[in-house]
Each structure stands twice: as structure tokens, then as C-alpha cells.
Amino acid sequence: MKLDVNALRYMSKEEFRTLVAVEIGQKNHEIVPVTLIDTIAGLKHGGTMRYLRTLLRYKLVHHDNSKYDGYRLTYLGYDFLAIKTMVNRGTVSSVGRQIGVGKESDVFEVMDEGGRVMALKLHRLGRTSFRAVKSKRDYLRNRSSFSWLYLSRLAALKEYAFMTALGKHGLPVPEAIDHNRHAVLMSLVDACPLVQVRELVNPGVVYRGLMELMVRLTELGLIHCDFNEFNLLVDDDEKLTLIDFPQMVSTSHSNAEELFERDVDCIIRFFKKKLGYIPEHDDTLPYLRPDFKAVVARSSGTLDVELAASGFQKQHQDVLERFARPGRDGDAGASGDEADDAGHNAAELKMQPPTPIQGHDEPANEGSGGAAQAHADGSDDEAGLASFAAQEQAVHQRVVQQQKKVGMRKAVSRATRNAQKSSSHKGRKQTASSIDW
């Protein structure tokens, strides 16, 4: 689905409020009932159906009435929520052309208020070509249920964490700027993918640089697992940049050596077939093929434990729990379990005045009720989360009470209908008996 942000400029705060209500409802519902959307949105004068029809026209939600009348978010609606949050934070002011398409993500050019051009990566797990993600990656851990929006959020969170950590350790990766939901904002690298290169001035130097980069990752306790020409950028000076990190695993992983050797073989194969460079035949530079066991033996990095990479050692579970404690990430996903912190939802319902991507200036809806009374800047402070949690609990209690009342009315109505049917049946039976006699 094409990302068209023109509709984003003209959406009202009530429409965004309704869209966020659908997202909150998807925490516990695959298809969110209209009554629940109306309760969560808490609009002063109602009118939720009118705004839902507008969102449906923009293809931000999908209508499903197979079991009951309800709605769910689409990827385009999730895109709008993520971009709106970044607009409110001031990290994004405009969205430009699409510069990349992958099997699990789309990349767009964006710009901030200062005119800096950056890259916005929107994860889109669940495409037809990538349906096996739930079996090949451990995003779900021991969970049995999932949604593709939730998996995309986990992938974005993981990539942002890896990119930030690797950048702090001096590895050539893009600068991680911001993230929200399934979107990751990073610096735009002036380079092209290695797969588009047909000739290198110093192929031997580039090859050794790639192998040394792989060794540095392993020494930190990580294996890229997708170290190939599609995820490596090279500029005019033949400097390298590594991208795409959600699939990284720990060197303690049971298949770590196999994955490491696969990455090495992939680079060697590319240089031989595409560039015509055979590393072992180069007399100017010594042939370099890293040995996994030797690299691991001398490594002292624990970045895999700090970032909870797949395959980390169990004796470091306490470190992981401190890192991944509840409430660390305030940007929740669209469905799943309690990991979906709802802080950003409350922030969206507050609706701060937008930056120039919004076509009109509207004051924040200070008096709106429902689940919207939380901090407006999208921050993850504990007070905001606690406040929203209390309000969400209150909304839940009101919904339960309404459902009980509806159930009681239905029970009374059902009993009345049964009594009427029974009385009518007895009357017909008595009439038939008298006629027979």
C-alpha cells in the first residue's frame, strides 16, 4: 500500500483520536467493536461512526463484520500514527520519496524542521515473501498469539537498540535518531548498496574491511546473520556502512558458528561472481578468512547480553531483566500482551498542535475525556503511564458494567419471549384438542 501523507495534513484531531482508540482496542481484540472504540475515544459529542467512515475512506482502518461489527488498523494507519508522533516530537516535518523496498520494510526520505534529510524505515512484517518470520526469529518468545503490527514494532525496537549500541562502539552504522511503533528514524548515508556496484578500485581493501567488520561484531558478542551485499553500503571513497539489524543473534546461539560461516561465504561468493575478485589469489594482500572459534576465544564483549540478543547465555538473565524491565519503552504496538505499553496512545489522544506536515493549526483538545488525559509530548515518564493505566482500567470497568447491563436486558427479553411462546403454544394445543374431541 502506497504511503500518501497528503491525507495526514488534513486529518482532524477527532479522527486521530478515533484512530488511536482503534489501536488501544487492538491490545486485547483482533477486531475492535464499535462500542469499545466509542468508549475509548471519549469524544464529547460522539460521532465516532462518522470519523470511522473517514478513516475507512483513507484506508487507515479495515472494517470486518464477519463475527461482529468492528475495525482493525491497517499498516497505513499504523504509519500515520508513527509519523504523527514524530511530527509532535519535532524529529520529522515532511515526508519525501521512497528510496528503498525490502522484503520486510520500506524506506522513505524525510526532513526535519532544520532541513536535515534523514531516512525513515517502516517495518512491514507479514508480507507474502516473509511469512515465516514467526518461526525464524524469536520475537514472540513463548507467546502463541501475535499480530503482524506487533511483530513489526518488536523488529523496529530491536533494530533501534542494536543500531544505537553499535554506533556507540564505533562501528560504521547509520545514526539512530528516533523510533516509534514500527518506524525507525536514522541518518541518511550518502552511499549505494554493494549489490549495485560493478567494479571497485581496491576490491582487496574492501574485502578485508568487510571481514574485519565481521570480526569486530563477533568480538562484541554478535553475529549479523544477514551480512551480504544487500545490507552493506559503499560510498565513492569505498567506505563501508552496515545496515539492517533485527535478525542479529548472540555468539552463544546454538547455530552461531553456522550463521557466521554463512555470512563469510556470502561475501566471498559475491566478490568472486559479481566482481571477479578471488581473495585467495590476491598476492598484494594476505588472504583473510576469520575463524569463528578463534575470534570468540579472544572476545570479551557482552553486547549480546545487554541487548538480549537471541541465544544469550542464561546465567546473564538478571542483566536482561534489568535491561528489558516493564515500562522501558513507552512506544507501544498494536496488539499482543502487557509489553504493549500504552503511554504513546495517551499522548496521541492529547493531540498537540502539529508541525508544517499538518495543514491547519488546531488547539489541543484540553477538555476531552475518555482515555486521553495523559502527557502530550509522548514521553515515557512513569507518572504518565500510571495515569493512563488507571484511566484504562476505569474504561475497562465501565465497558464491563455496560456489557453486564446489556446481558441482563437480553436475558429478561429472552425470558419474556420464551414465556410468550410457551403461552401461545399451550393455547394452540388446547384449541386443537377441543376440535379433535
Molecular structure report:
- The chain has 14 helices and 13 strands.
- It is α+β, with helices and mostly antiparallel strands and 437 residues long.
- It folds into 3 domains: 137 residues, Orthogonal Bundle (Arc Repressor Mutant, subunit A); 100 residues, Phosphorylase Kinase, domain 1; 132 residues, Transferase(Phosphotransferase) domain 1 (Transferase(Phosphotransferase), domain 1, Orthogonal Bundle), CATH 1.10.510.10.
- The strands form 4 sheets. The chain has a 5-stranded antiparallel sheet, sandwiched between helices. A 3-stranded antiparallel sheet has the order 1-3-2. A 3-stranded antiparallel sheet has the order 9-11-12, covered by helices on one side.
- Strand 11 and strand 12 form a beta hairpin.
- Helix 2 packs across helix 4 and helix 8 runs antiparallel to helix 9.
- The chain starts with 5 loop residues before the first helix and ends with a helix.
- Its cofactor is Mg(2+).
- Its EC number is 2.7.11.1.
- Pfam families: RIO1 (PF01163), Rio2_N (PF09202).
- Belongs to the protein kinase superfamily. RIO-type Ser/Thr kinase family.
